[in-house]
Amino acid sequence: MTEAAAVCILAASLALLISAVKRIEAGIGGILSVLLSVWLVFLIVQGFLYIKNGLTVPATDGINEYLPYIFKSAGIGFIAHTAADICKDSGEASAGLKILTAGKLGILTVCLPLIKGVLNTALGYING
Length: 128
Prior knowledge:
The chain has helices at 2-24, 26-55, 67-89, 93-110, 112-127. With 128 residues, the protein is mainly α. It has 2 domains: 1-55; 59-128.
């Protein structure tokens, strides 16, 4: 947890520094901005791999069959949120909200097999 907080503080500090550099020299600021983005994407991928390796258990536990749904949902969420932020930054907040709604529907669609499984299990307990 403290590592994540340190990364967030460092990234925010670097973003402020890059913003100041962009005012002086736009070209160098742009390059630094791209480097910061690449570094953050690298950290996100590392986090996903850490979670995937931590959740991978023997197949008898039944968790492995749900991992694709979890990662697809997280991927849709990140992509939709990033696209919505881009729209908001470019002055198209309405389009950004629609992208977020589409992302939520996409996550719901991906998770339908999970929802069906939970409902079937609940009905099995109710019916005895």
